[in-house]
Amino acid sequence: MKLIKDKVAKLSFVALLAAVSASMLYTPTASAHGEKSQAAFMRMRTIHWFDLNWSKEEVAVNDTMTISGKFFVFSGWPETVDKPEISFLNIGIPGPVFIRAGSWVGGQLVPRSISLELGETYDFKVLLKARRPGDWHVHTMLNVKGGGPIIGPGKWVTVTGSMKDFVDPITTLTGETIDLENYNLSNTYFWHAFWYALGLAWLGYWMRKPMFIPRSIAVEAGKADSLISGTDKKVAMGFAVGTLAIVAMSFSNTESQFPVTTPLQAGLLRGIKSIEMPATSIAVKVEDATYRVPGRAMQMTLTITNNGDSPVRLGEFNTAGVRFLDSNVAVDETGYPDDLLAEEGLTVSDNSPLAPGQTRTVQVSASDAAWEVYRLADLIYDPDSRFAGLLFFYDAAGKRQLITIDAPLIPTFI
Amino acid sequence: MAATTESVKTDAAEAPLLNVRNMLLGASLYIVFYGWVRWYEGVYGWSAGLDSFAPEFETYWMNFLYIEFVLEASTAGILWGYIWKTRDRKVMSITPREELRRHFTHWVWLVMYAIAIYYGASYFTEQDGTWHQTIVRDTDFTPSHIIEFYLSYPIYIITGFASFLYAKTRLPAYQQGMSLQYMVSVIGPFMILPNVGLNEWGHTFWFMEELFVAPLHYGFVFFGWAALGVMGVVNIEVASLSKLLKKDLA
Amino acid sequence: MSASQSAVRSRAEAVKVSRTFDWLICFTLFFVVLGGYHIHYMLTGGDWDFWTDWKDRRLWVTVAPIVSITFPAAVQAMLWWRYRLPFGAVLCILGLLLGEWVNRYLNFWGWTYFPVNFVFPSNLMPGAILLDVILMLSGSMTATAVLGGLAYGLVFYPGNWAVVGPLHVPVEYNGMMMTLADLQGYHYVRTGTPEYIRMVEKGTLRTFGKDVAPVSAFFSGFVSILIYFLWHFFGRWFNSTEFVKSA
User: Fold this and answer.
1) Contact check, Cβ <8 Å, C191/A93
2) What are the backbone dihedrals phi and psi of residue A359, each rounded to the nearest 5 degrees, phi first?
3) Residue A9: its pLDDT value, please?
4) Is it true that the peptide bond before A28 is cis, omega within 30 degrees of 0?
5) Which C residues 157-196 touch B at CB under 8 Å?
6) Minimal CA separation from A334 to chain C, in Å
7) Which end of chain B is more exposed for a tag (fewer CB within 10 A), N or C?
8) Centroid of chain to Cα A74
C-alpha cells in the first residue's frame, strides 16, 4: 500500500510540474469586455454612443489620453433596465490600468453619480492617465443604478513603460503635495502590524501554558477558578489599559498631525446640462425591418421626407456602437475601432440627394460581420425583438442631422 | 508505572502516534496546488477571462471547469469509498493506545479541513469580490467563480466529509449516533454550494450591481456560520481525549 | 488499571500528547473559524472594509462593530466557559485580519493592482482585546455583553483613525472638493463598482454639527450589546456535544 501511495504521489507531482510548465509557455492576449453577453435589444435601446474619439492608441505610463464623445439617452428605454435617474460615467478597463484623472458630462466634473433624462443628448469626456503597461481594450461605459453596466464601444490602447514609474501627485488644501499611489502606506502597515503583534502577544501569553485537555479536566472537576492566577489578572489589566491608552494617544496624535479633515463627499449631481440638439428637418418612417437568418445584414424600408431647404443624403446608421457607413457620403476620420466600423456597410437603393420637400421610399441594407461577432443578430431571440439606432443625414454643405429610429425587427428564414 | 519488557519491544517497532509526514505532505498538497491555481488565474484571468464569448475563454476556463468537475467527482468517490470500505467493523474493541493513535489521524484530517476551508471560504471568496468589483460580469462562469464555487468549495466538501467519515468509521467516540455539530460543520459549508444557484439566479434576474453586502448574498453568510460547528467537534474530541489521558495526567 | 490498558506509556508521554493536541486544535480552530468569520464579515460589512472611500463616519462606524462582534461572542462561549481560555475574541480577529490582509495584498494588489493604501482592512483588534479582558476579569457574560459590547462599538472609530484620518484631508480637484479617500475611489477605476453603490453618509436635515461619528458609535455599541447576547447563545449551541440517534 505504501509503495503504491508513494508512486501515486510521485506521478502526481510530475503531472503537476508538466502542467505548470506547459501553461507557462503560452499567454494569449485579452479581448473584449463582456459587452457581447448583454442582450442585443438592450444594447440597441439604452445609450447610443456617437462621435467617439480615443485620442491615442499608444500612451506611456504617466502620460494622458482622453476619450470623448456624445451619448443619446434613448427615449424608448427598456422597461427592464432602471431609468438613468442615478447613473455614473465610468470607463470600461480591466482594473486601474489607467487612473481616471477626470470625467465630465455637459462640462461638469462628475466624480459622483449623476441624474440623466430620457431623450436627451449629452457630451462627455474622460481623461485617463496610464498606469500599467499592456494592451488594453478601453470602453466607454455608463453604470445605471438598478440596471447595471451599459458598456459602449471599445478600442485597443497600448500602455508602454513600467508601472514602477507611475506617480499620482496631488496637492491638498492644507498645502502638502503627496503621491496618492503610496501615500500613508507605511503608516497603515505600521499600525496594523502593531495591533496584530499586540493580539499575538495576548494569544502567546495563554498559549505558553497547556490549554485544552488539562484545563477541560480542571473545569469539569469544579476547579475552574484555579486556572486564572493573580498575575494573569494583572497582565490582562495591563493589556486593557494599554489598549485604551494607545488608542487615545494614536487618535490625538493623528488629530494634531492632521487638524483639517472633512467627511467623505457624496451625493447625487442633478441638473446636468444636455446638448441643445438643433431641430431636425427630416422625417423618417420605418416601413419594415428584417434580418435574414443566417446572414449578416439587416434590411429596412424607410420613407424619408426632407422638410429642410437643402438636399440630403443618408451617410450612416449607428446601432449598439456598430457604425454602417455609405462611403460615398460619410467617411470616418477618427480612427474608430475596425471591428465596429463597416466603412462600406450601408447600402441605400437610391442615395442620390433628396431634394427639399421631396419624399422617397428606399431599401437600406446594413451589412457587416459585426452582426454576428457582436451577437446583435441574437436580437431575434430576445424577449423584445425591437431595435433602435441613429441615422445620420448630410446636406449639401456637409451639415449633419441625427434622426432616431425605433422599430420591430422581423427575422426571415427563407 | 514501570514499562514491561513487552512494551519496550513494542515501543521500538511502533510508528509515532502522530504521522507528521502525512500531515505535512497533505498540507503541501493543498498549498502547492492552490499556489498553482493562483498563478493560473493571474495569467489567464486577464488574457482569456474577460469575454466569455471569446474562444480562448472556452479553452482556458470552460475546459478547466469541465476537468475539475470530473476530477472532483472521481476523488470524492474514490476517497469516501475507500474510507467507508476499509471501515473498522470492531471499532469498539480497539486498545486505548490504538484509539489515541486514531484520534491523531482524525486530527490530521481536521487540519486538512481547516486548510481547505481557509482557501475556500476566505481566500477565494474575498478574491471573488476583488474580481467582480473590478471587471464586468458577463457569465455565471467567471474565472473567479470557476475557481471559487466549482473548485475550492468542492475541495473543502470532499475533505470535510472524508474527515467525518474517518471519525465515524474509526473512532469509538463517534459510534453513539451522528454528532450534531460535526454534521453542522460539514453540511453547513456544503450547503454554500447549492446556494450558488440562488446567487446566480439573483445576479442574472434581479440584482445588477456588484455590492458584496447585498441581501442576495445572505445565504452564504448563514451557511458560513455553520463553520462554528467545529467548536462542538473540538469539545467531543477533548472530552474523549481527557478520558483517555486523565489518569496519566494526574 | 495495568500499564497495557493505558493509552500512553508514561506521564511524560501524556503531557506531550496533550500539548500536541493543543497545537492541532489551535490550528484547526483558527483556520476553520477564520473561514466562517471571513465569509460572514465580507458579506455583511465587506464593502466598507475593502475600500477607503467607503470608510465614512456614519455607516462604516455603525456596521463594522455590529457585524463583527458575532464570532468573538460565539467563540468566547466555548473557550472561556469550557476551558477558561480568555482569547476567543482575539483569536477570531487575528484570523479575520490575516485572511483579509492576505487577500488585500495578494489579490486586490497582486491580481487587480489596487494600491494597498486604498484597500486595507479595518482594525478590529482594540475592541477584541477589551472583550477578552472584560470577560476574563468579570467572569460574567452579561458584563461582557454590556460593557464589552459598548466598548467594542465605541473604540472602533478612534482605533482606526490613525490610519484613516490622513485620508480625510481635503483636496480641491478640478473645481470640486474631495477627500483623498474620495479621490482614490475616483482615480482607481473599478468597473464593477460605480460611485452610487457607496453606502456612506450623505447628510440629513437633522445632523447636528459634527456629532455624526460619536452618535453612530454609540448606536453601534448599543446594537453590539444585543448581538453579543444573541451570539453567545448561538455559540453555546455550536458547542454542543450532542449525538443524534438514527431513526
Assistant:
1) yes
2) -125, 140
3) 52
4) no
5) 190-194
6) 25
7) C
8) 19
Calculate how close chain C gets to B208, using CA atoms only, in Å.
Answer: 10
Residues C84 and A232: their CA atoms lie apart, in Å, by 12
| Chain C residues 157-186 within an 8 A CB cutoff of chain A | 158-159, 161-163, 165-184, 186
Residue B206 and residue B181 in contact, taking contact as beta carbons nearer than 8 Å: no
What is the C-alpha separation between A208 and C199, in angstroms, rounded?
44
Compute the average pLDDT of residues A89-105: 96
Question: Letter for the amino acid at A345?
Answer: G
pLDDT band at A244 (very low <50, low <70, confident <90, very high): very high
Instruction: Indicate the pLDDT class of residue B5, thresholds 50, 70 and 90.
Output: low
Cα separation, A62 vs A271, in Å, equals 33
Q: Give the span between the Cα atoms of A272 and C137, in whole angstroms.
A: 60
**pLDDT tens digits, residue range B163-221?**
999 999 999 999 999 999 999 999 999 999 999 999 988 888 887 788 899 999 999 99
Q: Are C149 and C228 in contact (CB under 8 A)?
A: yes
A170 forms beta bridges with A178
Nearest to B225 by CA among C37, C95, C91: C37
Task: With beta carbons less than 8 A apart as the criterion, state whether A128 and A67 touch.
Answer: yes
Q: Where are the alpha helices (DSSP H) in chain B?
A: 5-13, 20-48, 55-57, 63-85, 96-117, 124-132, 143-147, 153-170, 180-205, 218-225, 230-249
A180 touches chain B (CB under 8 A): no
Chain A neighbours among B 25-64 (CB < 8 Å)? 25, 32-33, 36, 39-40, 43-44, 46-48, 50-54, 56, 60
Distances (CA, A) of B83 to B79, B87, B128: 6, 6, 33
The interface pTM score, or ipTM, of the predicted complex is 0.96
d(CA A151, CA B136): 9
Q: What whole-number distance in Å separates Cα of residue A325 and Cα of residue A322?
A: 10
Residue with cell 500536541: C20
Residue C247: the pLDDT is 58
Cβ–Cβ contact A30 with B under 8 A:
yes
Provide the grid cell at A93.
478597463
Cis peptide upstream of residue A294 (ω within 30 degrees of 0): yes
Per-residue pLDDT of chain C (247 residues; tens, 9 = 90+): 444 589 999 999 999 999 999 999 999 999 999 999 999 999 999 999 999 999 999 999 999 999 999 999 999 999 999 999 999 999 999 999 999 999 999 999 999 999 999 999 999 999 999 999 999 999 999 999 999 999 999 999 999 999 999 999 999 999 999 999 999 999 999 988 899 999 999 887 777 777 889 999 999 999 999 999 999 999 999 999 999 987 5
Lowest mean pLDDT among A149-163, B6-20, C194-208: B6-20
Window 77-106 of C, Cβ < 8 Å to B: 78, 82-83, 99-100, 102-103, 106
Quick check: C82 contacting A, CB < 8 Å?
A: yes
Contact C25 B238 (CB under 8 A): yes
Instruction: Label residue A330 by pLDDT band (50, 70, 90).
Output: very high
Confidence check: pLDDT of A311 > 70: yes
Contact A32/B239, CB-based, under 8 Å? Answer: no
DSSP state of A267: -
For A139, phi and psi rounded to 5 degrees? Answer: -110, 150
Residue B98 has pLDDT above 50, yes or no: yes
| Number of Cβ pairs < 8 A linking chain A and chain C | 272
**Kind and range of the H or E element at A186?**
helix A185-207
The 8-class DSSP code of residue B209 comes to S
The residue of A86, A182, A190, A265 whose CB has the most chain C CBs within 10 angstroms, and thus the best one to mutate to test that interface, is A265
